[in-house]
Amino acid sequence: MEEVDKILIRSLRLAGTAVPAEVQTLREFSTELIVESVVRCLRVISPSLASGFSPLLPPGMSARFRMGMGLAQACTELGYPRELGYQSFLYSSEPDIRHLLMFLAERLPRDAAEDADQPAGEPAVLRRAIASRIKEQLAMPWVPPACRIPRLQRAQGSLPLDRFHAQRLVLPDADATGVPKEVREFQGGRFLPPAPVQPALRPWRVASLLESHAAELSARQEWEAEWKGPGLASRLSPEEYQRGKRQRLQRRLVEQLRQSWGRVAPSEQGLPGAQDLGELLHSWRAGGPHIPAGKGSRFTHAERFTFRQETEAPVGQAPVTDALLPSKRSEQDVQAAREEEAAALQQQLDQLGRAIEEVGAHMKKLNLSLGQVEAEIRESQLGAAEREQLMRVKKRAVDLLPDAQVNLAKLQLVVENSAQRVINLAGQWEKHRVPLIAEYRQLKKLHDRRELESSRQLLEIKDLHQRICGAADEAKRKEELYKQLVMELENLPKDVSRSAYTQRILEIVGNIRKQKEEITKILADTKELQKEINSLSGKLDRTFAVTDELVFKDAKKDEDVRKAYKYLAALHENCSQLIQTIEDTGTIMREIRDLEEQIETETGKKTLSNLEKILEDYKAIRHENAGLLGRIRET
Q: Cα 113 to the chain's mean position, in Å?
């Protein structure tokens, strides 16, 4: 059983139970350790069943009884076949606890299932540790601050919290091919501080790093999703696709800025329609309306004058302090003057805002009127061009009217020549059209074939891209699994090697095989003995029957034979009694062995120690009841 206990204790430690190193068998488990082991296993197997249990045994006896009944109910719902109650945890016996812990250890999730369902690696281990810690703290009952032990003070103490404030971090570019020299020198390390030092306050570091990582990861995922869809369909390289996207974005910004500006500045009328965003903004800065700076208040002038005096003061002259300046007005007068000036400035600002709104509305009306006038002008120009063309044709017809017959004859000759030329051109075109149509059809077939081939290659590229992503994810998962296994291997004890475990397992398997062979031999010998006993019993019965018949025939004639017959019957009866006595002796020996095993089992159940515990718990319950009755009487 020691090997079984060691394997079971190792499984409990993997489930999160803090089994001390000196505990090697289940016989050394205390009540607190048994309760913690059962709660930890239930949390791993079914968190919903163990949500209301704490791994710490409560101090009160009534709470212990309720906890024992709850654990028994949870194990029964999990499918434990044997009878279970609070006494199984509070007054436990070694066989019952071994059977219960083996039942729970068999239902713990295997490593393969955990690797398939959960991510591997150090982050996954950290997340699972955080989750288990949070579950443990949630399952811990709340205790008033005055009654908390040091452990509860650390778990439930109120610590100062900081707001989630993220600051933008400047990180060096991984690909420095298109980065200017000055930027590379700045990012080289002499001027750009490390990322953890860039936030102004220490509590902002984690928030800034998380925000930067999330932004980078989101941008990478968006680019991968966009490149897999419209990017591959555009049949461009990533650089060309990004360049075209940037140009389209700039054009849209230009159009939006033009529409929001409402009126084009005079200096940008000569620029082309597809100008750059920088040129448009430069034109607006150069030719846009200049907003004059305000005159400012007298306090602003006083502040500027003071600072100018301080900055323009000579080196040898000390600045005049506020204590040496005579105060001409009291603070109330200064405050009242400031409020009046602020109210006047606010009124002036409101008036300017209303004026700007009125000018904006007037500009919108003028823009609409200008658009309508421009549309009418374009329509008028188109109508004038059509009328001019019609007038030109009519003028030529009027010029030809005086010599109409000659002009008609010339026109008829021109028409006939034109018709003949059209016929000749049609014949020549027919000669050229047939090979051109054939070439066109051939090129179209070639184009369609190339289009199909391109579509097929595009689908293959997408499929290959998906395979690459899947292979990358699989490689990443295996790499994290490898790191996790390496970390677990490093955490394993170094004094015991794998060969020792393997040798021990092989010895156990060999012993089991030998025991099976011995059991098989004993069963075979028992069957042979049973067959021999049955054959001898049958032979004895037949011999006795024949002897009895022969002696009985002679006993009617001879007195000595009659006595021999009586002795024969007595011998047969005594032999039968002897055989029955031997069988009863074997049965009694088997019962004795069964009783000895039951005695060993009852001895292993620690009945006396459990009885002493029950008496102590009974006294504790009576003491608690007496205390409660005293409190009730006092109230």
A: 17
Q: How many CB atoms lie within 10 A of CB 37?
A: 28
Distance from chain centroid for Cα 312: 63
Residue 246 near residue 480 (C-beta atoms within 8 A): no
Amino acid identity at 566: K
pTM (2 decimals)? Answer: 0.34
Cα 96 to Cα 29: distance, rounded to the nearest angstrom: 13
Q: What angle do CA 453, 459, 462 make, to 5 degrees?
A: 140
Query: How many whole angstroms separate alpha carbon 433 and alpha carbon 426?
Result: 10
DSSP string, 36-74: HHHHHHHHHH-TTTTTT--SSPPSSHHHHHHHHHHHHHH
Cα 139 to Cα 55: distance, rounded to the nearest angstrom: 9
Residue-wise pLDDT tens digits, 445-498: 999 998 888 888 888 888 888 889 889 889 988 988 888 888 877 776 665 566
Task: Judge whether 120 and 477 are in contact, CB under 8 Å.
Answer: yes
**DSSP 8-class letter at 497:** -
Phi (first) and psi of residue 83, to 5 degrees? -75, 140
AA identity, residue 123 = P
Virtual torsion, Cα 246, 247, 249, 255, nearest 10 deg: 160
Q: Provide the terminal-to-terminal Cα distance of the chain, rounded to the nearest Å.
A: 56
The answer on pLDDT for 573 being more than 80 is yes
Please give the structure tokens belonging to residue 545: 């029957």
Handedness of CA 136, 142, 143, 148 (dihedral sign): positive
Give the Cβ contact number of residue 202 at 10 Å: 10
* Sign, Cα dihedral of 576, 577, 580, 585: negative
d(CA 107, CA 42): 9
Kindly give, in sequence order, each residue whose CB lies less than 8 Å from that of residue 87, ignoring residues fewer than 6 positions away.
68, 610
CB distance 236 to 248 below 8 Å: no
Measure Cα distances from 145 to 57, 157, 334, 406 in Å.
20, 8, 53, 125
Tokens of 287: 């030719």
The first and second tokens of residue 517, run together, are 């062979």
DSSP 495-542: SS-HHHHHHHHHHHHHHHHHHHHHHHHHHHHHHHHHHHHHHHHHHHHH
CB 155 within 8 A of CB 145: no
**pLDDT above 80 for 163:** no
Three-state DSSP class for 322?
Answer: coil
Q: Write the single-letter amino acid at 110.
A: R
For residue 373, what are the CA distances in angstroms to 359, 367, 377, 379? 21, 10, 6, 10
Question: In angstroms, rounded to a whole number, what is the distance separating the alpha carbons of residues 372 and 367?
Answer: 9
CA separation for the pair 57, 32 (Å, rounded): 6
Residue 147 DSSP symbol: G
Task: Give the pLDDT confidence of 498-522 residue by residue, as tens digits.
Answer: 676 677 788 888 888 899 999 999 9
Beta-carbon contacts of 69 under 8 Å, excluding residues fewer than 6 positions away, are 85, 86
Q: Could you tell me which of 559, 517, 502, 468 has the C-alpha nearest to residue 227?
A: 468
